[in-house]
Design a protein that fits this description.
Elements (H helix, E strand, L loop, with lengths): L11 H29 L4 H20 L9 H19 L3 H6 L1 H24 L5 H24 L8 H16 L11 H18 L5 H30 L14
């Protein structure tokens, strides 16, 4: 679905509902990090990193939300709720001892974020509010969650630096697209891509649990890496094959969303 931006920015009155959603999210995160800090005796860097993560996310939302939108809608609010959970998990990276002591509850947070990944899309379809912004918002959170889980495995010493390749692969793909513009073309919907994403999160969550030894962790993370690399290769080959059928960039009248 392609959005056309209006010639003028939204008025203050139009922007208020979106600011209200983001402010409510910030208050919920403050309350959650305060409870986490008091109950777990976590490092003060935990709530600080969580809040910095959320503020960065909120800033990106305000920067990329379509001009004519007056509110986020329920589907994007659910995605924002996922963002709160992922911000909490990001904050936990500031205290490796917290990660080790509370691996199971933190894994439950990651599982909840994974489950909500399907709910927000269902709500968008039921309310006919699917959008390019919502799909991109959802995808970026998935990518960040996977990178956070990879960093957690590295900080806990359960996997070597190679595990970061899982979380960094998508960002490397985006960077490559700055030079090779054919990589930025829209890809068709793919159940294979979605299944690989779910398996990555599930495998990394299981690997983080205390019961997962070194061998199990390497097999789980390794399978996620191999599956992701294979999925990217399939998509890159598809984009390369179809690149020659497109008109030169300067001759296009439209743009890819």
């Amino acid at each position: 679905m392609q959005y056309c931006q209006s010639d003028t920015k939204p008025t203050r009155r139009q922007a208020i509902p979106i600011f209200r959603d983001l402010l409510l999210g910030a208050l919920c995160l403050l309350a959650s990090t305060a409870l986490m800090w008091s109950w777990t005796e976590a490092s003060p860097w935990v709530p600080l990193l969580a809040m910095i993560t959320y503020l960065a996310m909120a800033g990106l939302i305000l920067a990329f939300v379509p001009f004519h939108w007056r509110h986020l809608g329920w589907a994007n609010r659910l995605t924002l709720g996922r963002g709160l959970l992922i911000a909490l998990l990001t904050g936990a990276l500031a205290d490796p001892e917290l990660l080790a002591r509370y691996a199971t509850p933190l894994g439950a947070l990651a599982l909840l974020a994974l489950m909500l990944d399907g709910v927000d899309g269902w709500v968008a379809r039921r309310t006919s509010t699917q959008s390019d912004f919502g799909a991109r918002f959802d995808m970026e959170l998935d990518a960040w969650l996977i990178l956070v889980l990879c960093l957690a495995l590295l900080l806990l010493g359960k996997a070597g630096p190679w595990v970061l390749a899982i979380g960094a692969m998508r960002y490397a793909f985006v960077m490559a697209g700055l030079k090779l513009t054919w990589l930025t073309a829209a890809l068709p919907e793919s159940r294979r891509r979605k299944a690989i994403c779910v398996w990555q999160v599930a495998a990394l969550m299981i690997a983080l649990q205390p019961l997962a030894g070194a061998t199990a962790t390497n097999w789980l993370a390794g399978s996620a890496l191999v599956g992701l690399a294979g999925s990217f290769m399939v998509d890159i080959c598809w984009l390369y094959r179809h690149a020659s059928t497109r008109r030169p960039e300067g001759c296009r009248t439209g743009s890819h969303s």
